[in-house]
Amino acid sequence: MAEPLIVIRRVSRRYQRGADDVHALEDVSLDIDGGRFVALMGPSGSGKSTLLNLLSGIDQPSTGEVVVAGMRLADLDEDALAAWRARHVGLIFQFFNLMPVLSARDNVALPLLLTHLDRSERTRRAETALRVVGLSHRLDHFPRTLSGGEQQRVAIARAIVTDPDLIVADEPTGDLDARNAEEVLALLRQLTDQFGKTIVMVTHDPRALRFVDAAYHLDKGILLEGEAAHRADEAIRRAAGQPERRP
Amino acid sequence: MSWTRLVLANLGRNPLRTVLTAAAVALAVALVSLLLTMPAGLDLILDRFASNTRISVHNKAGVVYPMPYAFTRKVRQVDGVVAAAAFTWFGGAYEEAGRVTFPNFAVEAEHVNAVYPDYAIDPGQMAAFLRYRDGAIVGRGTLKKYGWSLGDRITLKSTVWPVDLDLRIVGEVANDTAPMLWLRYDYLDEALKKQGWTGLGIAGVVWARVSDPKLVNAVMRTVDDLSRNSEAETASETEKSFFGNFFGSLDGLVRIILVITSLVALCIVFIAGNTTSMSVRERAGEIAVLRALGFPRRTIVQALVAEALLVVTGAGILGVLLAVGLTGTLRTVAGWNQTLGPLGNFMVTPGVVVQGLLLSVAMGLTAGIAPALGAVRRPVAEALREVF
Lengths: 247, 388
What we know:
The complex is a heterodimer of chains A (247) and B (388). With 247 residues, chain A is an alpha/beta fold. Chain A is 34% helix and 24% strand. Chain A has one domain: P-loop containing nucleotide triphosphate hydrolases (Rossmann fold). Chain A is globular, with a radius of gyration of 18 Å. Chain B is α+β, with helices and mostly antiparallel strands and 388 residues long. Chain B has two domains: 3-48 and 246-387, no CATH class; 61-232, no CATH class. Chain B has helices at residues 3-11, 15-49, 71-76, 109-115, 123-131, 140-146, 185-194, 216-226, 239-282, 284-293, 297-336, 350-375, 380-387, and strands at 54-59, 67-68, 81-89, 92-93, 104-107, 135-139, 153-158, 164-173, 181-184, 202-203, 205-210, 234-238. In chain B, the strands form two sheets. Chain B has a ten-stranded mixed β-sheet with strand order 4-7-8-6-9-5-3-11-1-12. In chain B, strands 2-10 form a two-stranded antiparallel sheet. In chain B, a hairpin with a 5-residue loop joins strand 7 and strand 8 (164-173). In chain B, helix 1 crosses helix 11 and helix 2 (15-49) packs antiparallel against helix 9. Chain B is elongated, with a radius of gyration of 31 Å.
């Protein structure tokens, strides 16, 4: 049996916020296989974004270990982690976070500046990524001239342009209307189905359940398992008007 | 997409701010470059206007202390001295009560022309100076300034001696480099005797011309040896050194101006640094995202410093060019207008260009590094948490 792409073992994350000692994650263990589209769900402050940061190498756990594609992230210092992220992780944010002074093409080509590709190859790959997300007609448009859905698709193109092992998305539909949210979720699904990408997405959006292979639920820093996880899943499906899944 | 495009795109975010910062830096660098031309410019003025064969002999205690008039004859007898003339400050004020508006000296009419052959005074005018005891030779600039002409009569009220002298302008120094008027030594001597004085009997400075520049040092030593252990020991110096001492006080002024200008440059560094800091703060979210995407801290610092360097160094180049243009214009204008003559000697040399550019680079680095390091100081997760 193949090793999961992501292995999270007894991970806790605590940090100081002012005078408070925040326990963002407590003893979380989770395996995620490659080529899957999974969602991390839960209420605000449940620790899902913290978990996303840990498995994408943006943050390090206080205890426990995170292994992604065979790499034990705790072994890397901040600069090595940055280099690892540049090569292996694509990031999608809720508010798109594109550079306003760059065109769609240049925004997508941005991560390629860290590679040894020449300029024409960087441009070619950026245009290919934009074609994949259906924006080949918006290459020279700046973010302010694009709709929210289009901006998020540019961000998705930026996340896939380096052909990473893992794509992490933090509330990618959080700032979109219903139609654009559906389109973005469908696009992410397509990336898994057509290109075999592993996608881990943090979301509140109950529509996401129709697109993902699995959903993991967190509450107060704890990963829900068994009956608790099932109940959380069903509650979200009911809220979204979706049929209940058989256990 | 390239690093250059990224840096230029970031500079274009707030064009007005970029332009204003660049303008402030350009003006500061231009100012510093102009001031850096002053020491060399003053030296050039001295080189141009001071003869290399003329020496001044004055009291060792200072030029305000007189020497016996008879010492002039001793100077004339020194081997290598072609001519020597006593100069005594008359301190005459024209019209404006009590204020001397141009230097005027009582000089030995029969010797002064031989000491100043480079003044090229018309022989007819020189003959008139010798003929008329009340004659005066005036620099052309001074003539122009007061609207005087040859043949005019003027009265100077001395602020030093108890006499007013009526003078007849008989000649001019056409190639004068500074305001000047010479009157005759014997005329002042006679006027003082009429007032009951025993006569002038003193010389403020003896100017002497030496036959060969190589003999200048030996002549100065001999002259000073002649006065050793007398009541008025002398200190001889070249004409360049003599005027250099006057400019010496200007040197101090230049130094003060350079210090002030350096402080202005430092202020500009702070302003540029603040601008960079504001720009970095406004882009905190973008910088956090870049770091999340995998951009190393070093790369982000380099890009931010490159932005500051590009603006400040670019502005510095403009500043240096501005200084070159200004001094070039001054030189051209000075060619047309004699009164601006000395200003044409201030030139932005290659050395000044290099100093101006180095200053710009230093300003750019200083203004860029601190904000850039601040931008990547915190862990990326913390930075993301703070901005989102």
